[in-house]
């Protein structure tokens, strides 16, 4: 029996043929633009409540910053990211297209695939790693119910880098997560809403517990700065770069979500909610970690390891459940949906968002064996974290191209045509290519040093401490200069051409042709 892999429903109406688009890749039609201001509040509160953000501020204390300095770095970093998110998010809300399609207008039809493919790979790896984090939450929940789980014998060899119980918990978490891959982006917002209500209250309860166990004036006073002078300045800038980097991916692909906005004003709230939510969660991580240091005599950055010390099984279960839910929402919003949107552009005849999420769950969840990555490849994880050297330039080019060079006057239907005005030179906007070289290459020595500190690169290592800011502002300036001196005249429009304009013109042309047929055949 022959298996038909092509999508049988939902062929796109944009592009020369179905090879270039499908229903999920087309601009979002009006009846599916359902996200309101409250949905974006819930989305970002949901994204802020995850283990990585909890640990962000705490890890800054490890390099010698005080808790106040760490919080200021988080606040400033997320204020900057919020501005970029809203600038790129407004584009998605106006044009109602996803990042991989929008990217063609600034990078060129074929060069845009560089950012798309690299982001797919990044999302697959982080999906697996977040799933492993979720499995640790499952372990703590099961341990709270059945403490004897710790005595289950390990039947796997040490080289497996995961225990029998660990693999069981991983399978349980993956199995719970997998059905959510079939939920549409319009409906998944309800998960973000539920998470944005349940998790913050649970974490507030954990923070109150820490203040009751150890008064704030005792445990926070322990977190004093151990750096001074230039070391303090570079330490703070490095912390700022970490704050910028943690969600720098979404500063680029936020159109994947804002294209569902009811109107562009609905997503303006991101400017406020992002710095507030992330700063508050950062403070929660600091407070609980500091209290744990006093209670247990060691710094426990991982909240799940902290929960493992608790004797109260009910409290341990509900706390672990909050991290379970937190990881679940983040994995879908930041990884599986992002990867799926990108995959639809790579093979629109065969992959829609639902299939893309399923592929992400299988490849990222099992084929990449995240437990092996976490156990034996810390240098690789350093490289993945260093991907911010590309994300800053990507965001800068997108912002400048839309707002300053084309002033919002772009042609949406042309973004689906490989021979259209965004072909530039053989599908490559050389201005974007040169900009990437100028803004990324200077950060590579620092990235190499970050992966392997034994490789000395001199003062170039300091530049990596401000990798995102250097990349964003350098790329913005260079791209604006090149596009001003050598403008791509063929891409300039007198006014924006939206999907609706294209469909109306096609409908009018069709009616005109039908009218002519009627006249000729009375």
From TrEMBL:
Annotated localization: Membrane
GO cellular component, one term: plasma membrane
Membrane topology: Multi-pass membrane protein
Pfam families: Transp_cyt_pur
Keywords: Membrane, Transmembrane, Transmembrane helix
GO function terms (MF aspect): nucleobase transmembrane transporter activity
Protein name (database record): Cytosine-purine permease
């Amino acid at each position: 029996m022959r298996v038909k892999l092509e999508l049988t429903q939902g062929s796109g109406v944009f592009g020369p043929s179905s090879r270039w688009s499908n229903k999920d890749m087309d601009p979002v039609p009006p009846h599916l633009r359902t996200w309101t201001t409250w949905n974006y509040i819930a989305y970002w509160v949901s994204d802020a409540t995850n283990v990585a953000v909890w640990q962000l501020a705490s890890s800054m204390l490890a390099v010698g910053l005080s808790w106040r300095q760490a919080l200021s770095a988080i606040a400033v970093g997320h204020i900057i990211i919020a501005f970029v998110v809203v600038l790129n998010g407004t584009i998605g809300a106006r044009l109602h297209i996803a990042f991989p399609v929008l990217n063609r207008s600034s990078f060129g039809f074929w060069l845009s695939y560089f950012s798309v493919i690299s982001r797919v790979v990044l999302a697959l790896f982080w999906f697996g790693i977040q799933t492993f984090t979720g499995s640790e939450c499952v372990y703590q929940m099961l341990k709270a119910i059945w403490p004897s789980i710790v005595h289950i014998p390990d039947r796997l060899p040490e080289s497996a880098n995961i225990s029998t119980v660990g693999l069981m918990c991983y399978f349980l978490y993956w199995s719970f997560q997998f059905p959510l891959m079939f939920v549409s982006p319009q409906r998944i917002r309800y998960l973000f809403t539920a998470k944005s209500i349940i998790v913050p209250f649970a974490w507030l309860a954990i923070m109150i517990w820490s203040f009751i166990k150890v008064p704030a004036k005792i445990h926070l006073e322990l977190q004093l700065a151990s750096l001074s002078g230039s070391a303090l300045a570079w330490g703070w800038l490095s912390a700022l770069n970490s704050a910028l980097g943690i969600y720098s991916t979404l500063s680029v692909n936020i159109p994947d979500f804002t294209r569902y906005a009811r109107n562009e004003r609905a997503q303006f709230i991101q400017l406020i909610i992002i710095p507030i939510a992330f700063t508050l969660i950062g403070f929660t991580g600091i407070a609980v970690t500091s209290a744990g240091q006093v209670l247990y005599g060691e710094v426990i950055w991982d909240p799940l390891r902290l929960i493992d010390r608790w004797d109260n099984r009910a409290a341990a279960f509900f706390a672990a459940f909050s991290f379970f839910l937190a990881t679940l929402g983040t994995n879908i919003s930041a990884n599986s949906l992002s990867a799926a949107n990108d995959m639809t552009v790579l093979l629109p005849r065969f992959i829609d968002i639902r299939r893309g999420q399923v592929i992400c769950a299988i490849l990222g969840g099992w084929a990449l064996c995240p437990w092996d990555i976490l156990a034996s490849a810390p240098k690789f994880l350093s490289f993945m974290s260093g991907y911010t050297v590309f994300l800053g330039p990507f965001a800068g080019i997108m912002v400048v191209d839309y707002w300053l060079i084309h002033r919002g006057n772009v042609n949406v239907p042309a973004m689906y045509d490989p021979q259209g005005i965004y072909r530039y030179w053989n599908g490559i906007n050389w201005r974007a290519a040169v900009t990437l070289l100028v803004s990324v290459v200077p950060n590579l020595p620092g990235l190499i040093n970050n992966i392997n500190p034994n490789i000395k690169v001199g003062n170039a290592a300091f530049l990596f401490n401000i990798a995102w800011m250097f990349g964003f502002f350098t790329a913005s300036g260079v791209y604006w200069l090149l596009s001003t001196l050598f403008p791509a005249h063929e891409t300039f429009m007198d006014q924006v051409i939206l999907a609706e304009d294209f469909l109306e013109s096609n409908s009018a042309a069709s009616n005109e042709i039908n009218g002519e047929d009627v006249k000729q055949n009375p």
